[in-house]
What does this fold into?
Amino acid sequence: MRNNRSQAPFSSNDYTSSPSYTPQPPQHRGICTAVIGSMTQAMRAQTVLGEAAIHATLTKISSSQAHNGCAYGVDFSCVQSGNVRAVLERAGIRVRQYLSG
It folds into this structure.
């Protein structure tokens, strides 16, 4: 069987020349927070997320946001929400709540 690479099934111009194609700007959904609880567990969450190539920063959660006194959590890009939930669940880290920014 002969592979003819000179003929692509479509070209990149096929999409842009179509009248129904409208380029969309990337969506930046801000910063989300996973409320963890103890500082130790929040630090562990930050480490686990870093190992999964997800940037997260440790943050202290105010009493008004935590609903159960002071707590710690990790801030991360909301674009990574699904990945963060999966990684923390696999690591066995219990998240009290997720706050979206």
Remarks:
- The chain has a mean pLDDT of 80.
- The CA atoms of residues 21 and 58 lie 41 Å apart.
- The longest helix spans residues 39-51.
- The first strand starts at residue 31 and ends at 37.
